[in-house]
Amino acid sequence: IDCFDRIFTCSEVGAGKSNPDIFLTAAGYMGTVPRETWVFEDSLYAIRTAKAAGFRTVGVYDASNEEDQDEIRKTADIYLEKLAHVDIFLK
């Protein structure tokens, strides 16, 4: 939690992740535009939402979404088996 300046929640923004508002709100807070902003997500529908809004995406493995992992791998710009593998993203 010490790595983040601000965390936004869907309830705070007033929309779920099938709507890009949470991603747009976070980008606005950081002063970036979608094409300059990376969204890290573990759910397929949220990755699709972010990509449709112009964000670049990093899919992160989550066992609760096991059935979607192949599609997440195909859809996201980068895929991480573990968030601890963030060094792959940084390259």
SSE topology:
Layout: H1 10-13, H2 21-30, E1 38-41, H3 44-52, E2 56-60, H4 69-75, E3 78-80, H5 86-90
Parallel strand pairs: 1-2, 2-3
Strand order of the largest sheet: 1-2-3
Low-confidence stretches: none
Mean pLDDT: 92
Work out the number of β strands. 3
Number of helices: 5
General form: globular
Q: Approximately what portion of the residues adopt beta-strand conformation?
A: 5-15%
Helix/strand structural class: alpha/beta
Give the % helix: 25-40%
Short description:
It is built from five helices and three strands; from the N terminus they run H-H-E-H-E-H-E-H.
Description:
By secondary structure, the chain is α/β, with parallel strands linked by helices. The protein contains 5 helices and 3 strands. Strands 1-2-3 form a 3-stranded parallel beta sheet. Strand 2, helix 4 (69-75) and strand 3 form a beta-alpha-beta unit. The radius of gyration is 13 Å and the shape is globular. The mean pLDDT is 92.
Describe the structure using short key phrases.
38% helix, 91 residues, single chain
